Amino acid sequence: MEVKKVGVVGCGSMGAGIAQLCAQSGFQVVVSEINDEFLKRGMGFIDKVLSRSVEKGKLAQADKDAIMGRIKGTTNTKDFADCDLVIEAAIENLDLKKKIFAELDGICPKEAILATNTSCLSIIDMAM
Q1: Do residues 7 and 86 make contact, with C-beta atoms less than 8 angstroms apart?
Q2: Are the C-beta atoms of residues 50 and 74 closer than 8 Å to each other?
């Protein structure tokens, strides 16, 4: 399966960074947050990081605009329905992550890859 569209659940530091790098790599990206305030903050973080690269001459303004154009922010998890890969980057709370994966399992295509960006939780516990 070829990955064309990537979903990222959570637009905090890790989620924003993952979304940015996926978009920089040419993927269409959908990134979600629990509310508009957090989403705006995360998208602003991505914009700020890319703007810094433009200021330092490491990235052209047109490239920054193209990268930002590949990222769609949302508060609706149904927007992951056509993603080939979804990376969960929510806070380190096992019950929350289990809930997210249960929801994604019902939304995403059956062949979609569901991944996590956990730093301390058991993947086995998350799967149960």
Answers
A1: yes
A2: no
State both tokens at 33.
């947050």
Tokens found for residue 10: 């959570």
Q: Which two tokens stand for residue 53?
A: 């690269």
Classify residue 49 as left (phi > 0), alpha (psi -120 to 50) or beta. Answer: alpha
Residues 6+ apart with CB under 8 A from 34: 75
What are the tens digits of pLDDT across the range 92-124? 999 999 999 999 999 999 999 999 998 888 887
**Cα-Cα-Cα-Cα dihedral sign, residues 42, 57, 5, 69:** positive
In angstroms, the CA 44 to CA 65 distance is 13
Percent of the chain with pLDDT over 90: 91
Q: What is the pLDDT of residue 121?
A: 84
Q: Which residues of 39-62 are buried (b: 16+ CB within 10 A; e: fewer)?
A: beebbebbbeebeebeeeeebeee
Q: Which CATH superfamily is domain 5-127 in?
A: NAD(P)-binding Rossmann-like Domain (3.40.50.720)
